[in-house]
Amino acid sequence: MSSTSLNKRKSDHIELAFRSQLSENDGRFFYEPLLAPSPDLSVIPSIEIAGKTMKAPWWISSMTGGAEKAGNINANLAKAAQKYGLGMGLGSCRPVLEQTESAADFKIRKLIGGQPLFANLGIAQLEELFLNQQSDRVKELIKTLEADGLIIHVNPLQEWFQPEGDKFQFSSIDTIKRCIDVFNFPLMVKEVGQGMGPKSLRELLELPLEAVDYGAFGGTNFAVLENLRASGVRAEEWIPATRVGHNAEEMTQWICDFQREGSLNIQAKNIIVSGGIKSFLDGYYHLLKVPHNVMYAQASPFLKYALLGEEPLFEYIESQLQGLAMSYSYLSLKS
User: How far is Cα 75 from Cα 72, in angstroms, rounded to an integer?
Assistant: First the structure.
């Protein structure tokens, strides 16, 4: 380091010292500064999903942000997934079922290369397709998009809040089990922002799914979003119900409890922790805590940077991966 650079650094330290004081630490981790060299991305473990390898246990759980922007968002996310060896879930592919020309916004296999790519349909659409004996349309969707499997998003509370929401004739678990019986490609199941209680979580973990995704309370809350779209007395009176749900910490603790009690016959291959994951530290906490094959997922940060363009998105991903490498090098879980 040159003397000029050294002097600049020391000057910065003096000027910034009083602005760099914190009174609270992150109490989830032990910081162990003596036991590893400088962080390197090679310390981040890979994980397999749908027979394909991700270079980091970090899933891109995308939201398309409006039909007119879907194509650009999906393209940027796919390029990022290919570049950094990640996996990606598309936003709802319902438009592809309703308008075949919409497929262009979702056909990103050439951009994502050999990385995992999952299509996405809501439980209401799947129930309707089964009732109309049109389940082959789902198989055609997977083929058209060259997807590795299907994400089933479960959102009964969102539908209840939505002014034009769908009504269900069957329970979500019944429709999920039917999907398992009918489809021969990998399936994931996720909530969309409220999480799920211990009975529902157990039901899913004991099914032969590729992954169970929390979709926990703490991220984008579609119950809130739909209630904001409503008006009148109902919108005001239903506000308390938007707070119903379970955060990722609760759900992870239930899985730990199930495993400790020996009461869970887990069949799902992977667990994806999503909902309120603000940074690599939040993700790392669950990577260490969940006693199963686990990755974490984010949606809003990817959406934010994908809208800005490739370079901001790449810069975001690189910063998070460097943070994850630091975590694996210097941090261990307290409990």
Answer: 5
